[in-house]
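Lecture notes, continued. The same structure-token format from the folding unit now serves as the input rather than the output. Read the line below as a description of shape only.
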């Protein structure tokens, strides 16, 4: 997805070999076209016997940041998946959705690492298509899984009395299968011909995704975000209604609990919007002719959303916290409170 950004960054670097002295020029040609630094030191990569020398591609700090972010994403979400997998009690539909989100973010992190490798080690069209397809599928699945978790939270409040009987594992797995099927199809589009490798004038800010495809993905994201926001507004209304119903007996507790819940939902929405909105809007208005620095500046916050997701949806959950405490140190802190969630929690 970010494969062409490093190439665009390197194209703006000065060609020091062309301005060197004749002796330096002949030396450069004898080294197989290796780059020379301004002080005459060789910056090329020496291969085996030293006869076959190839220039090192300049490593962009933005690509390094994306690769580090991908590594952090992978580690975080692998920890979440391990906690869910090795804890038999965490098999409810809510935890299945959290596991699916963690799997999507894990693939996104691996995709960022693969993208870095494809830029600086492989540099082939096939590697580009594979890394881009994986990133599109993974990030699409991440956003749609967040939507599924939001729907699950809404239903747990709207149908609080019948939620546990209506929300079966079969229904959850069927919904997740549909989500992943759609996301895999989106990820396969570049490899099936919907790319701009043959005509780069039609490229979006993320080569080899075409401008039309990038706009379609961005508009779809905006629609999903609008739906998530609407669902959270409904959740807030239901939470306030529940608070009013118990205000006579527990007025102070209800007010504090509901206010805290609304603050949490506001933080979730603001974080999601701050991470993804700049990239979505920029994908609509920009194309490959725009400065690459702006693409990096919008892509990095979008990837950071997958760093934040485990904190919001997994590590705050008391059941997952208990599982992690048991896995890491074999015990649970004495002051740890495992209060069951109620329909008034948001």
């Amino acid at each position: 997805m970010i494969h062409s950004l490093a190439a665009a960054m390197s194209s703006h670097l000065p060609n020091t070999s062309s301005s060197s002295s004749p002796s330096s020029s002949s030396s450069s040609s004898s080294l197989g076209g290796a780059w020379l630094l301004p002080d005459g030191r060789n910056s090329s990569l020496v291969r085996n016997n030293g006869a076959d020398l190839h220039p090192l591609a300049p490593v962009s700090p933005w690509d390094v940041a994306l690769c580090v972010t991908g590594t952090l994403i992978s580690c975080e979400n692998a920890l979440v998946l391990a906690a869910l997998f090795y804890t038999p009690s965490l098999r409810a539909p809510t935890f299945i959705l959290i596991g699916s989100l963690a799997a999507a973010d894990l693939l996104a992190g691996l995709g960022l690492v693969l993208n870095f490798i494809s830029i600086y080690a492989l540099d082939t069209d096939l590697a580009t298509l594979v890394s881009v397809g994986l990133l599109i599928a993974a990030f699409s699945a991440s956003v749609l899984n967040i939507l599924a978790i939001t729907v699950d939270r809404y239903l747990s409040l709207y149908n609080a009395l019948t939620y546990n009987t209506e929300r079966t594992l079969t229904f959850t797995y069927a919904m997740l299968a549909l989500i992943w099927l759609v996301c895999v199809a989106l990820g396969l589009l570049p490899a099936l011909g919907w790319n701009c490798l043959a005509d780069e004038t039609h490229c979006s800010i993320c080569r080899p995704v075409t401008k039309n495809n990038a706009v379609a993905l961005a508009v779809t994201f905006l629609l999903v975000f609008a739906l998530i926001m609407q669902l959270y507004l409904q959740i807030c209304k239901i939470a306030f209604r529940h608070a009013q119903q118990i205000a006579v007996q527990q007025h102070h507790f209800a007010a504090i609990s509901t206010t805290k819940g609304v603050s949490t939902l506001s933080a979730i929405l603001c974080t999601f919007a701050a991470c993804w909105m700049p990239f979505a809007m920029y994908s609509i208005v920009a194309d490959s002719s725009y400065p690459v620095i702006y693409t990096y500046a919008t892509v990095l916050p979008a990837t950071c959303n997958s760093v934040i997701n485990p904190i919001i949806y997994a590590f705050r959950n008391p059941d997952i916290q208990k599982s992690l405490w048991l896995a890491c140190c074999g015990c649970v802190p004495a002051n740890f409170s495992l209060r069951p969630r109620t329909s008034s929690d948001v």
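Point for the exam: The two ends are 35 Å apart (CA to CA).
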